[in-house]
Specification:
Layout: H1 13-25, E1 44-48, E2 51-54, E3 59-62, H2 77-90, H3 100-112, E4 118-122, H4 125-140, E5 144-148, E6 171-172, E7 175-176, H5 187-192, E8 193-196, H6 201-211, E9 215-220, E10 223-224, E11 228-229, H7 232-245, E12 248-252, H8 264-269, E13 275-278, E14 289-293, H9 295-298, H10 333-347, H11 351-372, E15 378-382, E16 385-389, H12 406-418, E17 421-422, E18 429-430, H13 437-455
Parallel strand pairs: 3-17, 5-8, 5-9, 9-12, 12-13
Antiparallel strand pairs: 1-2, 2-3, 4-14, 6-7, 10-11, 13-14, 15-16, 16-18
Helix pairs in contact: 2-10, 3-10, 6-7, 11-13, 12-13
The structure holds pyridoxal-5'-phosphate.
Length: about 450
Amino acid sequence: MGLKVSFESGKKVQSQGLFQKAEKVIPGGISANIKYFPPHPIVMEKASGSKLFDVDGEEYIDYSLCYGALITGHGHERITSATTKYMESIGTAIFGTPHKLEITMAEKLIELYPGIDMVRYTNSGLEATLFAIRLAIAYTGRGRIGKFEGHYHGGYNEVLVSVNPNEQEAGEAGNPSAVPESKGIPEDKLNQTIILPFNDLKATEQLLRKHAHELAAVILEPVQGGFIPAEPEFLEGLRKITKELGILLIFDEVKTGFRVHLGGAQSVYNITPDLTALGKVLGGGFPVGAIGGRRDIMMLSAPNAGSDVFSVDGKSHKKNDVVFHSGTYNGHPIVLSAGLETIQLLEEDNTMGQLFMQTNKLRKQLEELYASYDIPMQTIGMGSIFNIVLSSNPIRNYRDMWQADNKLREAIDRELLDLGVFLKPLNRYSMSTVHDNIDIRKTVDAHEKAIRRLYY
Ligand SMILES: Cc1ncc(COP(=O)(O)O)c(C=O)c1O
C-alpha cells in the first residue's frame, strides 16, 4: 500500500513557520522530546473543552489531553473559577510555607488510595517516582531496583532504561537486557536497574529470587503505558513475592491515578502497594506529583529539628538518618486548589461512570468500524484510557506490540491530524468528562475517512 499522508502536504503553514523559528532557539524546537513527531508538531493557539485550535485556525478533538492530565477537558469553568478565586483570596501565588490545602489534599488521597497513609508533594510524576525509589533504597538498605520492560516512570537515569527497546537489543523475553533510552546514562546507573518481563510471573519470580538480596524495590505501571492491564494473578503473585522477599512494591499511578478509578489501579485490583506515585490528573492541568505510602516508610523523610542539609554549622548528624526531599514549589497552593476541584468534580453525580461509558462507546464504535473494513484491530485499556492496536493477537506486554501493524496505525493517526482528531501518532487515547456524543461520532467518521483515504 502506498501510504499517501495528507499531513505532509504542508497545509499547516503557520505551525511549520513557528516550528522552524523555535528550532533556532530551542533544541529540536520542542520542550519535551516525547512531544515531537515528524514532519513537525502542531503549534496550538487556544483550547476549550474537548477541542484544541492550532495557529492555522484548524480545530481538533483532543484525545491527548496533555498526555492524560486534563480529565475534565480544557479550561473547565469550575477549575478556572476555583483557582482564580483561591489565588485572589490568599493574595499570592505561593506562600513558601505550609498551608491548609496540603492537609486537605493529603487527607483526600489517604481516603481514596488504599496504599497511602501519608503524602509528600512534588512538581512532576518524574520527581514522585524518583523520591519513591530513594525512600525504598533508604528503607531496605539495598541498592538496586526492578523495573518492567516497556514501562515509563520519567526521564532520569535509573528508569530511563528499556522503555522502548528494539528487537535487536531487547534480549531474551524472560530475562530482558537493560537498554538505555538516552545518551549520557552512566554504565553504573544502567547496572542499578534489573529489567523484568511484564505479565510473566514465573520469569519475574526467578529474577526477583536471584536478586532479592540487592533489590530495594520493584516499580511498575499497573496498566502498562496506561493501556495494557496487568493480569490480576500476575499482580497478586508480584505482591506476594515482593512481600516475602522484603522488596518494596511501588505502583506508578501517574497515568492510572483517577483515570481507571478514583483510587487508582490499586483500587481496581484490590492490591496494596508499599508506595504510590501520582501526577497528571492530580494537578488539574498544573504541574504536580505526589508520593504516598506506608507510614513507616514515608516517615523516613520527616526532617525533625537539626536535619536541614543546609544548616549553617554543617554539624547536623541527623541528616544522615533522613531521606532528603525538598522543592521550592512542592505543595503549590494554586496547583492543589485545581487538583482538589478536579477530584470534587470527579466525585460528583456518577461522573466517573459516565466517563467510562463514553470511553467504552467510542471503543466499541471504532472496533465495529475497523471490523467492517476487515482490518484486524482491537482497543485495549481500562477506565478512561485506551489504545488502538492493529492486531487481533492477544496483547499482554511490550513485545506483543511489535507484531501489530504500527506503520498503518501511524499513517491513520497522521490522516486523523489532517481530519481534526488530535493525538500524537501512535499514542494512547485519553477521554475527558466533556467529550460528548458529537465528538464520538466525528471521531469515528474521521477514522473512516482516514481508512478510505489510505486504501481507496
Ligand atoms: C507512568 C508515568 N510515570 C511517570 C511519568 C512522569 O511524569 P511527568 O511527566 O509529570 O514528570 C509519566 C509521564 O508520562 C508517566 O506516564
